[in-house]
Design a protein that fits this description.
The protein is α+β, with helices and mostly antiparallel strands and about 150 residues long. The chain is built from 3 helices and 9 strands. The protein starts with 6 loop residues before the first helix and ends with a helix.
Length: about 150
């Protein structure tokens, strides 16, 4: 699926994995199309209600296995330690904003990661899960709002 896809195209694209859930918020135009493939959760976000603005993938959960790999320049996002992924992103010259340790983002590349989980998972010395639990891919300037507002 591509960013900019319409709601109908998004539903059609993910229907090959099973019946997707289409969720809308009351009094809001935002729509989410959710499903899973091989245990990996998938969510297309249509924040304007019209076109896909971001896609989020999340790990199936502690103790669950999947043969699906989510790769970032060859690194498995859910099986490579989070600190290694962020370090390699910096080495590529990407700006990494890890001011929110549980939810670092890479503006410009528009990747957002999450380490938030209520599950019992291996944690590093700072108490954070060692591995990311989700990744969001957005459009070119999806995360740039943080810098425009001086955050």
């Amino acid at each position: 699926m591509l960013l900019g896809t319409t709601l109908e195209e998004a539903v059609s694209a993910v229907s090959v994995w099973g019946e997707p859930k289409v969720l809308t918020r009351r009094n809001r135009s935002s729509v989410k199309v959710s499903t899973s493939c091989d245990g990996v959760g998938y969510q297309a976000l249509l924040e304007d209600g019209q076109q896909v603005t971001a896609i989020e993938l999340w790990w199936p959960g502690e103790g669950k296995e999947t043969s699906t790999r989510v790769l970032l320049d060859g690194d498995d996002v859910f099986r490579t330690p989070a600190e290694d992924i962020l370090e390699r992103a910096r080495a590529r010259g990407w700006r990494v904003d890890d001011s929110q340790a549980e939810s670092p983002v890479i503006p410009g590349v528009s990747l957002g990661f999450t380490r938030q989980t209520s599950q019992e998972v291996p944690r590093g010395s700072e108490g954070l899960p060692i591995y990311f639990t989700s990744v969001l891919v957005g459009g070119e300037d999806y995360y740039d709002y943080r810098y425009e507002k001086g955050s």
